[in-house]
Amino acid sequence: MAGEEVKVLSSWFSMFGLRVLIALKHKGVEYAYKEEDLQNKSQLLLQSNPIHQKIPVLIHNGKPVCESLIIVQYIDETWTSSEKPSILPKDPYDRAIARFWADYIDKKFYDAGSKILWSAVTEEREQAKKDFVEVLETLDGAFRSVSKGGMYFGGNDIGFVDVALASFLCHFKCYEAFGEFKIWESSECPCLSKWAENVLEHSSVKEALAIADPEKLVEAFQLYKKNLDAGSKLEP
Ligand SMILES: N[C@@H](CCC(=O)N[C@@H](CS)C(=O)NCC(=O)O)C(=O)O
Ligand SMILES: *[C@@H]1O[C@H](CO)[C@@H](O)[C@H](O)[C@H]1NC(C)=O
User: Fold this and answer.
1) Residue 45: nearest ligand to its CA?
2) What's the gap in Å between 40 CA and the centre of ligand 2?
């Protein structure tokens, strides 16, 4: 689609924002990337997402779309042609299952992960680590059926669940540093750990996640945690 304008408002450390970049790379869509300072949000962000005032936002020919999973579905439905891989499966039941697991990631995985990172209460953090491991093991079980024997949740290529989960892999070093544990050694996830290796080598994922170096994320999150008491309210 020539002459169209695609802009992404995001932050390099956001697992939600990175999903949008993976989807755009996968579809081969050119986009302009704007890094937002979440302590000082741009007028464009506030106007584009007045309800939540959060990143990511996709602005397509001047029209904003918000919420990462909704954006990924919008991208999938907008850039369709035979040579573009589709992100959601064709079959309605398979689509429902993919949406179920993406929703599970947002409800369970993100929550447990955030508590490992930001909870100041030791017992709460320890419980969050247990929850996190349980969620990973559940996803390991899901992989066996959803992938239908392929390398990815999407089968032979990445799909909706891969896009939803892969961006979180950048933060695994943060979860490990803040939770003082080793994720793959503390969990029974033979399929998911292999998936993690494979998906990070997928070209769309690799290119999109290049802005979120895991070591830099640990440094940034440690700095952020230090400043937490100083009145900052951002929660990546
Ligand atoms: N459910 C949203 C979550 C987005 C989100 O939490 N964004 C965070 C950064 S990771 C944000 O913009 N925080 C700024 C704020 O809350 O003021 C999505 O999937 O897009
Ligand atoms: C906030 O952003 C505006 C516009 O980008 C900039 O002019 C201003 O200096 C920023 N303020 C702070 C405190 O960073």
Assistant:
1) 1
2) 6
